[in-house]
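User: Hi! I'm working on a homework problem where we have to compare a predicted structure to a textbook description. Could you give me the structure for the chain below?
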Amino acid sequence: MNKRTFLTTLLAVALAATAGAADLLDTVKQRGTLKIALEGTYPPFNFKNGKGELDGFDVEIGRALAQKLGLKPEFITSEWSGILAGLQAGKYDVIVNQVSATDKRREIFDFTQPYTLSSAQLIVRKDEKRQFKSLADLKGKKLGVGQGSNYADLAKGVEGVEVKTYPSAAEYLQDLALGRVDAALNDSLLVPYLVKQAKLPLKGGAGVGSVEGSAIPYLKGNPRFGAALDKALADIKADGTFRKISIKYFERDVSRPLGAS
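Assistant: Happy to help. Predicted structure tokens:
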């Protein structure tokens, strides 16, 4: 076999192997279901309702995406500590559970385009007259945050802010309502839920810090599946489905940054 014939044969084998490689899109279409992993204990994103059924923002988004793909959603619950390992092991097709697409995770998984955007957000009393537009505005003031949270680290990095840490959001929201702290800090996606659940005279304040996105991870080597997922996401945004679900849980479109029109 001469060199040219050998190279031609090698290329033909490579192309045949590529053509024969099964994309996850073929698998889910043949199966008829989209296996979606989530925690099931992370309200308002996913939780069990009064009937013991899975409910929440990510659950409804998962259902809408499956419908656009012509599939039935099959939800699989997993603790956060093992959810990414389960995806890597092929126990499910995707995770719809507010997963950040970090560089380290991108080494193992591919991701859709971000479907939610969030930042740190202040919480203040409803009758607050002072203007807190940034953490710097809280110099000389007291700020309540969750113990060991990213927001505690963020707040402690601002000189002059007295940071008070609490075991739970319920405790610092109670202190905020009583005037023991001047503001509190949490994720902008969680603030509407926390304020609603607290049933205290509080409201969401200014967004502070950088904007970060969450996306849907899936196993590498499935480009057609990834393209179909991105198209399904684009479709539910275009037809208003995403916005309707988003407003139901967050009172705004969370595919856009806090404060965007």
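For your comparison, note the following. The chain has a mean pLDDT of 91. The CA atoms of residues 99 and 214 lie 5 Å apart. Good luck with the assignment!
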